[in-house]
Design brief:
By secondary structure, the chain is of the alpha+beta class. It contains 13 helices and 11 strands.
Length: about 400
Amino acid sequence: MSLQGTLGDFGVADLLQLIGSQAKTGALLVKGPSAAMRVAFVEGNVVAAHRVEAGAIDPVASGLLRAGLLTHAQLARALDVQQHTMRRAANVLVDEGTVTREALASFARLLTTESVCALQEWKTGTYAFSAQPVHPGEILHEPLRTDALLMEGFRRVDELPALREVIPSSSVSFVIVGELPAMAASTTGPLELDRSDRSRGQPARPLGAAERHVFTVVAPGRTVAVIAERSLLGEFEATKALVALVQAGVLEIVAAPAGAAATPSTTALSPPSTRAVVLASLSQLLASALTSLLIAALVGGLVRASNRVVALDAASVRAEDAGREALAVVARHRLSAALAIARAESGRYPERLEDLVAAGLLTDHDLAFPFAASWAYRAVTAEDRYELAPPLR
């Protein structure tokens, strides 16, 4: 089965329904005016969905970073392992114990649901479905029924106008102006809004667990989009909770800056570029290694004054070597991350490390740090890999 055409002739909902009803396995790629989305199916069920962006890293791993479930350094480490082993960064995080398999599956399920529901709002663009096996590494959660995702999308479209009357944009932030009321004995069921005064009324039932959880994530300057990521609820459910908190008089809205994005579908769970995330990681990695070097130097008894060694013995030499090795580990991560960025941006590894300096990814100092001579590097273009080693001493 091969499908391709325009959304003007065949809408997203029709596409999803057709693929689901025929129990097809493959990938659907939808390209809109400013974004693209990929949805993977196994026997008609959705097993993955995310935005497709040039130079973007693993969308699940980057989402875990934005949700605060891992650090830049941990993500950079996973990307480095991915580069050398071809294991997906998200799976590396689980294998190394950074996140649990359950947490990974939960976030991947959220990403898939948010992406498919956002895709249903697209009205213009092109689509192409390719019947092909889905790589096992792409499947991070249990298959989701396509018809259930369609119904969830329809529900959101139906409820969104009422939410937008209270919170007009995913770019607004909030200030806390009241206290949470006491927890009621039962707060199950969907939250009904008081439509008599949506700007500052009262929910039809007491605030529930979702609203209370979102309240703990609210902070000055945090937008709806950021709160949605931090709360792990997704933008639609987080917006519903925020509306309830506004109507209960607990929060007040701070207007969004001029020109900010206005809809959930333009911002929800969009992965940052490889360059942005990895470059932000490098300073954190280096700071950690410098701390290790300082501790090693102090423990070994190395004392420096005016950049001159005044006390040096065998123990301090070993300490200095250990510190240099710690820095070398970070330097290798730095070089590997820069090479991964160059590969993502140009489609191949650079011929020389100096090309990374020209691209603004490294400085001349980085090419040798922490050694006197430059790192040894060779691009193996035919095999789409590279070899990197410390200089001979």
